[in-house]
Amino acid sequence: MQTLYFAYAMYGFTFAFIGLSAQYEMVNTFDYSAADLAFAWSCVSAPWGFKPLYGYVSDRVGRRLCISVGAFCAGICLAYMPLFGDKIVIGLTLASFFICFADVASDSIVVTITKTHGRQLQSTCWTSRSFGSMIATGLSGAAYQYLHYNSVMRIASVGPFILSLMIWNLEEPERTVASLWNSVKSLHKMKHIVLIAIFMEAMPEIDNAFFQILQTKLSPIQISLTSVCGAFAGCVVSFIYQYTGGFRKCLYLSVILNIVCAIIAFAIYLGAPMLGFEIVRSALGATGSMLFVLPVVIEAAKLSCDGSEGVSYALFVSIMNLSGVIGEYLESYCVRSIDDMGLYLVLCAVVMWLPLLVI
């Protein structure tokens, strides 16, 4: 399973490593506003809303092939990212698409094993993803400051290229291809967690627009430090979760932490010590995110259709991801319309309790 763990660590590493450099490039070189940043990242996230299409392909042609092709193409996109120039969002969206294509095929393998051997593998894969993000965020600030944008993108391409070759060492579980209709019907069994996912993910985002505030007073290395603390918290939570339970308790706590994070962001906006408060916000935010994601994706894996795990599980995750894209669009629209970051943060804190209605 080491190859799978490497795959998830690479997925976590790649965009965490390039994210800070891409944001600074957008703001400093192409003069993106807070609303522009939010809209740009919603575009980059959009390919993750169409996972069933990639899952359908992986169920039919084989998961290892899809992982290999997706990772290789993602490496190409990242290696040539500097050539996109002011079309940086297009380049990032393409890289996001190919990473997602490989990620879906990996999920299909994990879901197949999870249904027969329990949630430990899935939890460990999420731990690997969080670990990759933690390492990447720790390096991202210094990488941008000393190596600059072009070199960061080329370094990030190495991981996907390695994965495209390594994945052939993995023994793919035997596949039995079920009908597409069975995959769709399995979504009905997930209707409760689907509703929870929609409410949780559709809440207005904060992080993308708030970067405009952070980058004025924190250096790239300091921003990287805050992200490391968040990634470490997520890594710890994802590791511990495999030994614990409490589906609803985790979701309740996740909602509470999200509200607390919005309040902390507002305190930073009003002048609270930025570095210390942002470290706390990052750690609590990552904890809240994992306490939401892990329970729902593990439950969805158990309910996915035998023989079409790529489609049925991906249908659920796509609904969750599309809801997240809606949240990012709401962030862009609200920030642009309100034109007051403080008022926007208050609005976020007020509405973030809504998921409690469906939990």
Question: How does this model look, in words?
Answer:
This protein has 359 residues and is mainly alpha-helical. 82% of the residues lie in helices and 0% in strands. The longest helix has 37 residues. It is globular and about 55 Å long. The model has no long low-confidence stretch (mean pLDDT 86).
Largest sheet: none
Mean residue pLDDT: 86
Fraction in helix: over 70%
Seen as an oligomer or otherwise, the chain set is: single chain
- Extract low-pLDDT stretches: none
Secondary-structure element series = HHHHHHHHHHHHHHH
What structural class should be given to the helix and strand makeup? mainly alpha
Q: Give the percentage of residues in beta strands.
A: under 5%
Distance between the termini: 34 Å
Number-wise, the strands total: 0
Q: How many H/I helices? A: 15
Global geometry = globular
Compute the CA-based radius of gyration.
19 Å
